[in-house]
Write a structure and sequence with these properties.
With 121 residues, the chain is mainly β. It has one helix and ten strands; from the N terminus they run βββββββββαβ. Strand 5 and strand 6 form a beta hairpin.
Length: 121
Amino acid sequence: QVQVMESGGGLVQAGGSLRLSCTASGSIRSINAMGWYRQAQGKQRELVADITNGGTTHYADSVKGRFTISRDNAKNTVFLQMNSLKPEDTAVYYCNDKFDVIRFGSEYVYWGKGTQVTVSS
């Protein structure tokens, strides 16, 4: 499994922005799709956005128009630009190999520590 480190979370007021980074220990070129996931307290982890090597993106309905996922292969990093943040976006955000999550199940893949995003109203 690819080893990743998430960063960029913090405390913001509703309407604010954050830019999350997910840096992999190795090349992400061989990964079919990288995804950003989040888990709010007391809720299941959910897929927020993902991006393929070909640049195809997907967003959960709850974040469409507000979040943008992008990739910088040279830096082995995937970003999540989060705009117009809402209190319901509050969660721990994780990145992972989407294919691995689908193939093995979320309970059987390695998850990093994630980065906390807290949005106040």
